[in-house]
Amino acid sequence: MIEVDTLSVRFGRTEAVKSVSFRVARGESFGLVGESGSGKSTILRVLSGLNQNWTGRMSIDGQLLAPLRSKAFHQRVQMVFQDPYGSLHPRQTVDRLLSEPLLVHRMDNIERRIMRALNEVVLPASVRFRYPHQLSGGQRQRVAIARALMPEPHVLLLDEPTSALDVSVQAEVLNLLADLQQARGLTYVLVSHNLAVVAHVCGRIGVMQGGELVELLSADNLRAGRTRHPHTASLRELSIELEEPETTSAAPRAS
Amino acid sequence: MLVEIKNLRIQFPTTTGLSEAVRNVSLTLGQEKLGIVGESGSGKSLTARSLLRLLPSNAIVTANKLTFDGIDVLRADERTLRRIRGARAGLILQDPKFSLNPVMTAGAQIAEAWRVHRGGSRKLAEQAAIDLLAQVQIRDPQRVARAYPHELSGGMGQRVMIAMMLAPDPELLIADEPTSALDATVQAEILRLIEDLVSRRGMGLILISHDLPLVSHFCDRVMVMYAGRVVEELAAAALTRARHPYTRGLLECLPALSHRQTRLPVMQRDPSWLEA
User: Is the interface score ipTM higher than 0.90?
Assistant: First the structure.
């Protein structure tokens, strides 16, 4: 479904992504983890066509991707960003936000599709004529997901979709993403620095460090500690240590 | 006691009457590390900021007692408050990108904080800034002192913020989601640094966060807030024995790396949590 082969991205003299290759099967969830600056978001932006300076080969659905993407591409591949407040137009109502992708892609039945989308992301019909600032953070992220779903894409690129949300809202959004994947057979590429979130959503995970993909492993192997690269092991150790509530008085001294 | 709050209430006028943001919150704090945990809108930041009287101008604040080292914060004049704000109680905010001055070097900002609160020559302040940068474990303090905020990473920026807050040698540090904008590794480093500095200097700490397990590693005591109320207060080490369903919900709805869940439990909010 998605094939990335020796992808490299440069920003001036820095090499942000160094010859990264991976494949994602149809209906699969693939996760990219790493620290800030490891290049994980850059890969997602290149995939979505937001960054046009790259070398290597990428294909989706067997079609090679050129730096400039067609309208048909954007119908198939959509992206959800970290901060819904930054990614939704503040002066547009939810109705307008959701109908725009339909107008761009000349799709019919706008009324029905909007109601269906709101229903799918479990938002009440009453939010339809509200503005983003009148919604809570979790509701806004649901609107962002609904908008990404409007053109009926096959692939959803998710860039830290829950990092700006409260933990209780994060649980709801993660459950929603699981439901949507099941209902629509979507393929996900999820980027996050939170290992627990990535392991929860994705079956296979790529670990990034300094622009390189240092390890590819299954979520089960990550959970069980069957890691090969020391960076994966240290990320895992820290994550496990901090997710358990404190039971002794000593502060963690990992990594 | 460094901080004493009794029955703090913070209200905001709205078109439909008064909305209650903080309801009857009481707390005392000495030289210890207190975590305040809750979701957005739970009143955790307002509670902490009321200590510095840094609230929106339309906030209506009442309390039977709101003191910082015996000073009545509610009745203090601006001059008195200025001797608390920054000087005796420092505030670290979430994102250093927005709280640092973008057109001043890191060193100049720290030196400014030093001179405002302690006086002394420019030269002395500059030296102090480099000292402070070294104290927040920056490897090359001279270089960082000359750098502008946009040249620093998020973690580095937050260290600069902390260095600035330490300049006047405060007795209390309020850290409001100090690491939410940082990734997991840097988050742990910064929290460890804060904990270390607070312990070594014998300061009080109020650490505000929405991540309950994380906070428990760096605090002695945790206060859980929901809709403006304190629903539970317990020792950080006793978190696994939390009784309130909201506290339990906050712990359970997190995905875990150590074990697999097919579906995450979703918080079932009980209207009775609002009565207390």
Answer: no
Contact A244 B258 (CB under 8 A): yes
pLDDT of residue A68: 87
Residue A42 belongs to a domain? yes
| Whether A255 contacts chain B with CB within 8 A | yes
Is B65's pLDDT higher than 60? Answer: yes
Is residue B184's pLDDT more than 90? no
The reported pLDDT for the residue numbered A255 is 40
**Is A246 a domain residue?**
no
Q: Across residues B55-65, what is the average pLDDT?
A: 95
How many percent of chain A have pLDDT more than 70?
96
Nearest Cα of chain B lies from the Cα of A193 at a distance, in angstroms, of 6
Task: Check CB contact under 8 Å for A36 and B182.
Answer: yes
B183 vs A193, A236, A249: nearest CB: A193
Name the closest residue on chain B to residue A35, using Cα atoms. B183
Residues of chain A with pLDDT under 70: 247-255
Place of tokens 């962002």: A144
Rounded-to-integer distance, Cα A80 and Cα A149, Å: 10
Give domain status of residue A255, yes or no.
Answer: no
Which of residues 86 through 105 in chain A touch B, CB cutoff 8 A? none
Domains of chain B listed by start with CATH number: 3-88+172-274 (3.40.50.300), 95-169 (no CATH)
- Judged against a pLDDT cut of 90, whether residue B276 lies above it is answered with no
Distance CA B235, CA B246 (A): 16
Please count the structural domains in chain A: 1
Whether A233 and chain B come into contact, CB under 8 Å, resolves to: no
Q: Shortest Cα distance from A240 to chain B (angstroms)? A: 6
Alpha-helix residue ranges (DSSP H) falling in B95-242 = 96-99, 106-118, 122-135, 141-146, 154-166, 184-201, 212-218
Tokens of B262: 């097919």
* A82 or B172, greater pLDDT: B172
Mutation target to probe the B interface, by most B beta carbons within 10 A, among A243, A253, A255 is A243
B148 DSSP 8-state letter: -
Q: Given the DSSP bridges, would you call strands A2-11 and A14-24 parallel, antiparallel or unpaired? A: antiparallel
Which residue reads 């807030």 in tokens?
B225
Structure tokens at A156: 């959803």
Residue A226 forms part of a structural domain: yes
Query: What would the pLDDT profile of B225-243 be if each residue is shown by its tens digit?
Result: 999 999 999 999 998 889 9
pTM greater than 0.90: no
User: Mean pLDDT across chain B, nearest whole number?
Assistant: 92
Orientation angle between helical segments A110-120 and A94-104, nearest 10 degrees: 120
Contacting residues for B27 by C-beta, under 8 A, at least 6 apart: B3, B4, B5, B34, B47, B223, B230
Which range marks the domain in which residue A92 is found? 2-231
Closest CB from B195, B257, B267 relative to A239: B257
The 10s digit of each residue's pLDDT in B94-112 is 888 888 999 999 999 999 9
Q: Nearest CA to A242 among B182, B245, B225, B128?
A: B182
